[in-house]
Structure of Lon proteolytic domain-containing protein:
Amino acid sequence: MLSRLTRPQALALCALPVVALLATAVFAPLPFSVAQPGMTANVLGSNRGTQVITVKGADTRRTSGQLRMVTIEATGPDARLTLSDLAGDWFRTDRAVMPRDAVYPSGDTLKEIERHNTAQMRQSQDAATSAALAYLDLSPDKVKVTLKLADVGGPSAGLLFTLGIIDKLHGDGHGGDLTGGRTIAGTGTIDAAGKVGPVGGVGLKTQAARRDGATVFLVPRAECADARGSLPKGLRLVPVTTLKNAVDSLRALETGKGSVPGC
């Protein structure tokens, strides 16, 4: 049959399967999610009308400045994203296209994911409380800390929760604030011993922090390179590995004495 067609006709006929394949690729759902800078919250204050940190069994102090935990927002696990949906996001610095499995565990339902994130947040809060009280040499049998942050899951606010507890109970240890009156943001997991761990998404989190007024960003040292990649102007990175390291850096920023590490 092809021998009876003109050359242009034959080429057009042969191209049809390729066009159909390309059309399918463009409009077929792909296993990716798109993340962007999310909300931030001052752990020294309130969020949605509820105090983030409350303490019983010890006096708390009035604080100035802010300690802002940061988040990223991602398309849901059930979102059907196509190549045409993702094309523009590949080239934006305020978006990140990531494999869905890197954002949501494969095979989990939305409810399972929510339960998992809630459990991680609860564990993070427990570790933050333990790390802060141990740092201040306070007994958990006498001092009770409650942490509440609506609609946020995962462990990445651990470091900021810990610093918030310390600032409310002890400040810088000399009558001042850990923040020095600044808006400090940051991210990082924490364990009961005060070790800070990486969390992912720091490039987007720095943008959320700067958008909401932060001038200093505490970042797990292992993620310095990722944080530098799209660092907003006016935001200073301070790498940390432990709670003591973070407190010492904040004190040095406040007093102007001592060295403050950089990425």
